[in-house]
Amino acid sequence: MAIRCPKCGVQHDVVKFEEGKQFECRCGFKLNLSLIETAEDFLRFCEGAEEHKKAGEIQRDAQAICQMILDLAYSDVDIEIAKEHLEEKVKNLFPDKMETYRMIYESRFKRLWDQFRTLGEF
């Protein structure tokens, strides 16, 4: 997988990035994985049209899971199943982007879960 520099457009292999570390593009722009915090960031850094389309599918599925977390009509089991299906989809479509998936989506799911699902458990 490559991450595109937003300043000059040069593509850099994601393997160059370590969690929390920066990588300097030849144009001088400092890239790091923290630049990819949202689904929109994920889409912006995708390589081509086909990858962009697949990333859009992931984004839509993740948004549906976020809505499930917010809607107390969905059971915990249903949400976990949806999350497992999304993770499997990411593994199939983007096997080399699992760490990025975890950083963006799993952390979002956990944040929403902690905020909206654990309120009544105290």
Strand content: 5-15%
Detail the poorly predicted runs: none
Morphology call: elongated
Identify the quaternary structure here.
Answer: single chain
Number of helices: 4
Q: How many distinct domains?
A: 2
Helical proportion? 40-55%
Average pLDDT over all residues = 80
> Between the first and last Cα atoms, what is the distance in angstroms?
42 Å
| Strand/helix succession | EEEEHHHH
Radius of gyration: 16 Å
Count of strand segments = 4
Placed side by side, the strands forming the largest sheet appear as 1-2
The largest β sheet comes out as: 2 strands, antiparallel
**Backbone structural class:** mainly alpha
Please, could you describe this protein's structure?
- By secondary structure, the chain is mainly alpha-helical.
- It is built from 4 helices and 4 strands, in the order ββββαααα.
- The chain has a two-stranded antiparallel ribbon with strand order 1-2.
- Strand 1 and strand 2 form a beta hairpin.
- The mean pLDDT is 80.
